[in-house]
């Protein structure tokens, strides 16, 4: 979601005096600035005015209210009408986004960690216009728990993320039992970061043409919050795979006139890749996921087409590789892999408070032909395809309160490199061609376009939970228990200003 709130002017002299006093007393300019930011957020709280995406204010796609009609696909990457400035101009603005949740995850039940309350993200966004054509974005999020860790192992359980005896020495991490893969994870966030940096990029816009350089969210499919999801626990698997930030360059062309249709956006991006290393078990000796392990860049061509206000189509074509074929230290989990995707998306909003949406995806994963031959596996790549569809229905209760419900259904192939690895060796009762399924119910209440309270219930069926360390593979309870990893929880999300 995005909420645009503008503050009244605050005297610059007052800000300068506050900062000077804090620096003298505390000796830390950064602390002084943070204090002023906090002061401004409180001082302007009684003067803000909500502005929806319909009011002529540009909105960021990654946080657009799902229940607001779309006016155009042309969007300024920097919304200079939101956030407050220090001083009050477009050079520097600040926005804070926060999400926290408490809930139950059956995938963690074997450790007694099924109920957890955690901060999903706490993002401080600095952004502004350097000049007429040049702008910037810097998102800092100290909460980063999405990276898979090297598991120390546990009796009777199989962990695909265990350190290999082949290759460099890798120390295991006790939390590796909780941060395994897409099926057993602890984070409520979806995005891998470079340390605390979520996004950091420069933007150059001249007419219809734009260039983005740095670390940014790839334009693949719908942003999960724009398609009804709140956390990684209730997001569809396709949404989680597509939620990728990476370092590179994005060229864009926009054809959209205010209030007129059709509207078109075309993006061509080249970047490091590596986005699916966790999803396809390409751990590469557990290097940081922001390190480039493949010499060739990955390419992405995507587009958005709106024939009229209520209807939107998207398509994204990704081609690339992750990892490297390490001939002196051969290892299936540190090999060169395919990383390609085709994602088709559609959304229809027949009424203001009713939106239907869906996506179909086909991912090409698995070892490349040369890596597969070196490791003794079949050389055909892995095709992982599926879809999800959903509907968002809401109703205004008051001018400041909207309640609603989102339901999604997803079916996605379970095939990936791990399943191929085990199936070809006839291990752990695993076979190719199985499907994971989920049905998710979400209820929410949105207050003044600023605060959202939500509850989700995710009914998830996983064909092979034991390959993710969820169920035991030996002992009296081997391969027993429900194959579902149901999840439920409460969510709080807000943005200020």
What are the secondary-structure elements, in order, as H or E?
EHHEEEEEEEHEEEEEEEEHEEHEEE
Domain tally: 1
Termini separation (Å)?
A: 12 Å
- What is the average of the pLDDT values? 85
Q: What ranges have pLDDT less than 50 throughout 5 or more consecutive residues?
A: 1-10, 22-80
Helix content: 10-25%
CATH superfamily: Porin
Text of the CATH class: Mainly Beta
H/I helix tally: 5
DSSP strand (E) fraction? 35-45%
Largest sheet: 16 strands, antiparallel, barrel
Quick one: how many beta strands? 21
Which fold name fills CATH's third level, the topology?
A: Porin
Question: What does this protein look like?
Answer:
With 497 residues, this protein is mainly beta. The protein has a single domain, classed as Porin (Beta Barrel). 10% of the residues lie in helices and 38% in strands. It has five helices and 21 strands. The chain has a 16-stranded antiparallel β-barrel. A hairpin with a 7-residue loop joins β3 and β4 (93-105). α1 (12-26) crosses α2 (29-43). The radius of gyration is 23 Å and the shape is globular. The relative contact order is 0.14. Residues 1-10 and 22-80 have low confidence and may be disordered.
